[in-house]
Q: What sequence folds into this?
């Protein structure tokens, strides 16, 4: 299969808008679970408003949240796909700009020093484009994540040492969730990276935060910590929007990477309740939106 | 016992001091949008606005808008597309000057604000109303039009003037009597910390 850059550009545009308007089904199911289990009256009323908002966004064909986020594209290329990588990345960037201009969307991206907004949702290094490979025949998957800033500001890295143990890793996560309180728009998905280098650890925290609900860490030790922390964060009573309740997080997700004998890094990256993602695959048969 | 208040904006000091944490509020008529860059320019760079914010409510926002094709006065004119709320805590150091210089009475946002804001509310008479962050599609249905815009070189972090109807109900979470639901929830989470850490074998 030859990857058509025009098709990639259109898809990059469409996926940005779809992601902002349609909440993924796993997150909707996550809300159903929390609504059924929340015991605090304020917490329940906040959850009801969030569920109502999802319906209003669908009915009015509007964005779920005003924050158009930092655009992230995850591209996974399968086997027997011919592509021009540079042209593909340029096409994604053009699609992202076009979504912003043509919808129009609020450009939330500025130069970090001058704070100038180019009104394109693009800038130096943005959109983020992560490219990976897998074994699917003649398939290219593109996932678009508009990462909201309220929760992205809930990002932390600590280079713990081996003597601190896994105990300190767990304590670090609990303390960051307490520190963030309602600022990160709970109920959240708490993404945790354990191990790796500093950058891999942080990247894994983002992978964890943006993983669908219902998936578990592929490493059994990581999965154990996931289960423990998921229960623990909801015992803190922070609740939806930090106004009290037991629905602080949908789930804590952990991703693990091997690390150095001297190191014990932990990273936290939080995803808000508007946990937006849009995914499509390109095959010789056409485009399929998931 | 919590009370519901319908407030026709603007309001005076007595009206804002009548609000108590746990009460609910619906706003009518007018609301102003403000956020990071707006406040940095207004107070750190001493930029002034032609808008009168006295007795009004501001919401921490930067909307998605569509620029209207043409306007007789060539002033920028926008239609609202999606208007929501951003995290308030970043704006903490601006509450006092916003109330002192501009006479703002109510701040609407998400996540709550800190001790400097609570002090300013107590001294001058103000309140914080929590809106549900991320519920922008719903919030947009309470906004009739964008009446005016200023400091638009900061777009989308301009100073926005919205005409609203039935904006709420919103929960009073910080009042002028020293109460803050945000502080209470945070303190209660901190108090539960040791037991939570012990439950996962992570105690100090």
A:
């Amino acid at each position: 299969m030859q990857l058509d850059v025009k098709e990639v550009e259109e898809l990059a545009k469409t996926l940005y808008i779809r992601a902002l308007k349609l909440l993924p089904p796993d997150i909707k199911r996550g809300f159903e679970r929390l609504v059924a289990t929340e015991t605090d009256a304020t917490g329940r009323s906040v959850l009801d408003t969030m569920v109502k908002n999802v319906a209003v966004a669908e009915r009015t064909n509007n964005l779920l949240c005003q924050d158009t986020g930092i655009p992230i594209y995850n591209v996974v290329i399968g086997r027997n796909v011919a592509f021009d990588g540079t042209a593909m990345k340029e096409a994604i960037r053009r699609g992202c700009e076009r979504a912003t201009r043509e919808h129009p969307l609020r450009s939330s991206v500025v130069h970090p020093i001058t704070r100038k907004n180019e009104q394109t949702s693009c800038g130096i290094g943005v959109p983020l484009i992560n490219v990976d490979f897998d074994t699917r025949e003649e398939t290219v998957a593109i996932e678009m994540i508009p990462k909201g800033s309220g929760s992205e500001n809930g990002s932390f890295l600590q280079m713990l040492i081996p003597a601190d143990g896994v105990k300190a890793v767990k304590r670090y996560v609990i303390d960051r969730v307490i520190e963030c309180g309602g600022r990160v728009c709970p109920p959240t998905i708490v993404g945790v990276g354990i191990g790796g280098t500093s950058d891999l650890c942080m990247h894994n925290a983002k992978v964890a935060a943006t993983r669908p609900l219902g998936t578990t860490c592929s490493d059994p030790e990581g999965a154990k910590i996931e289960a423990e922390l998921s229960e623990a964060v909801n015992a803190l009573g922070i609740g939806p929007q930090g106004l009290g309740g037991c629905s602080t997080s949908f789930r804590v997700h952990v991703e693990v990477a091997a690390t150095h004998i001297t190191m014990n890094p932990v990273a936290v990256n939080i995803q808000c309740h508007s946990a937006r993602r849009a995914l499509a695959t390109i095959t010789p048969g056409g485009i399929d939106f998931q | 016992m919590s009370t519901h208040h319908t407030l026709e904006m603007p309001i005076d000091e007595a009206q804002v001091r009548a609000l108590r944490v746990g009460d609910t509020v619906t706003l009518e008529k007018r609301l102003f949008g403000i956020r990071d860059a707006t406040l940095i320019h207004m107070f750190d760079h001493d930029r002034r606005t032609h808008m009168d914010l006295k007795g009004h409510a501001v919401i921490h926002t930067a909307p998605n808008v569509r620029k209207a094709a043409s306007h007789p006065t060539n002033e920028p004119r926008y239609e609202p597309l999606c208007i929501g709320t951003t995290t308030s805590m970043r704006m903490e150091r601006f509450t006092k000057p916003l109330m002192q210089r501009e006479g703002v009475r109510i701040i609407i946002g998400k996540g709550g604000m800190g001790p400097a804001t609570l002090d300013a509310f107590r001294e001058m008479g103000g309140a914080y109303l929590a809106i549900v962050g991320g519920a922008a599609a719903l919030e947009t249905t309470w906004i009739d039009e964008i009446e005016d815009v200023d400091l638009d070189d900061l777009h989308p972090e301009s100073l926005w003037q919205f005409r609203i109807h039935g904006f709420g109900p919103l929960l009073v979470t910080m009042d002028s009597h020293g109460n803050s639901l945000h502080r209470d929830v945070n303190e209660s989470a901190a108090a539960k910390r040791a037991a939570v850490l012990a439950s996962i074998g992570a105690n100090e």
